[in-house]
């Protein structure tokens, strides 16, 4: 390896820094002589904290500024939560590595009631995600779902300060920050399917940078890559982003790739779910097949109402 220095771009939240330090440590294990620098970059999603993500609009709220820095040569790679990455990567860039997935599920944090089924009628639940909102309301239309933004620690503080009965977060973030003791229930996929790529980290790089792409290749976990490839194909097919209540989860069982997905109306009153399975090498086709299945079963009408014409 001739490259001596690698500049990693990252957001400055505690979780983003943990993710970047994790990637840096993995690379240093393989390349002890490599000098790694971190460059902190603020994204639009970091600046606007008092508005629900879906209302800000646009894609790449947590990635655009990092991608601009990469295209200008300011940084060599960027580390993202894969679930923050839009289905389409800007021209000239690529997802160079996808790490082994941490627990991909959503969790309930409810010190008082502990379980989803124990929440009282009209319980006040915090989440910033339309995907979570729609699925929770589909099961419990009585719930009072309120917007909850901010980093993990901020959300845990708001749980108490704003008198929530519970909040819903990604398990992976809590575990990575050593906060797993706050989890009171891991939500089954029958209640809440995760976001595309949830639990996996993506390392984005320049397509033309052959040396860097060879360098980061060691970070990729093949099973996670296959599963998330199907999930991202699903997302691309439904033109999904923060504004669309879709959930999808791929897993390899008995050498077959099983992909489950949902498209839901914002209020959860209509939820179209299904699954497909097939050989892992057909991951992209399977993701697209599932998307078409759900679109044809009623999902297309739901997305049209949200202004997405397919």
Could you characterize what this model shows?
- The chain has 310 residues and is α/β, with parallel strands linked by helices.
- The chain has three domains: 5-100 and 200-220, Periplasmic binding protein-like II (D-Maltodextrin-Binding Protein, domain 2); 106-186, D-Maltodextrin-Binding Protein, domain 2 (3-Layer(aba) Sandwich); 233-305, 2-Layer Sandwich (Double Stranded RNA Binding Domain).
- Helix content is 34%, strand content 24%.
- The strands form three sheets. Strands 2-1-3-10-4 form a five-stranded mixed sheet, with helices on both faces. The protein has a five-stranded mixed sheet with strand order 7-6-8-5-9, with helices on both faces. It has a three-stranded antiparallel sheet with strand order 11-12-13.
- β11 and β12 (256-264) form a beta hairpin.
């Amino acid at each position: 390896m001739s490259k001596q220095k690698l500049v990693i771009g990252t957001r400055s939240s505690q979780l983003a820094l943990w993710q970047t330090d994790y990637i840096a440590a993995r690379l240093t294990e393989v390349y002890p002589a490599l000098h790694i620098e971190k460059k902190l970059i603020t994204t639009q999603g970091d600046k606007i904290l008092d508005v629900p993500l879906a209302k800000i609009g646009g894609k790449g709220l947590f990635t655009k500024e990092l991608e601009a820095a990469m295209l200008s040569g300011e940084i060599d790679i960027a580390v993202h939560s894969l679930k923050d990455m839009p289905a389409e990567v800007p021209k000239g860039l690529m997802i160079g590595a996808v790490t082994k997935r941490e627990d991909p599920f959503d969790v309930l944090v409810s010190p008082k009631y502990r379980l989803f089924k124990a929440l009282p009628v009209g319980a006040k639940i915090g989440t910033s995600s339309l995907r979570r909102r729609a699925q929770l309301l589909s099961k419990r239309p009585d719930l009072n779902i309120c917007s909850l933004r901010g980093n993990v620690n901020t959300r845990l503080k708001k749980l108490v300060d704003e008198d929530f009965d519970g909040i819903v977060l990604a398990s992976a973030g809590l575990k990575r920050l050593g906060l797993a003791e706050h989890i009171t229930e891991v939500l089954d996929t029958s209640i809440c399917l995760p976001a595309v790529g949830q639990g996996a980290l993506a390392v984005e790089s320049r397509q033309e940078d052959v040396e860097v792409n060879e360098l980061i290749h060691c970070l990729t976990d093949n099973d996670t890559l296959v599963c998330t490839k199907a999930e991202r194909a699903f997302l691309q097919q439904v033109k999904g982003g923060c504004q669309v209540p879709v959930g999808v989860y791929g897993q390899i069982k008995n050498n077959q790739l099983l992909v489950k997905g949902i498209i839901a109306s914002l209020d959860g009153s209509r939820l179209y779910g299904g699954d497909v399975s097939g050989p892992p090498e057909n991951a992209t086709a399977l993701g697209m097949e599932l998307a078409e299945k759900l679109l044809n079963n009623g999902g297309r009408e739901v997305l049209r109402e949200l202004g997405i014409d397919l």
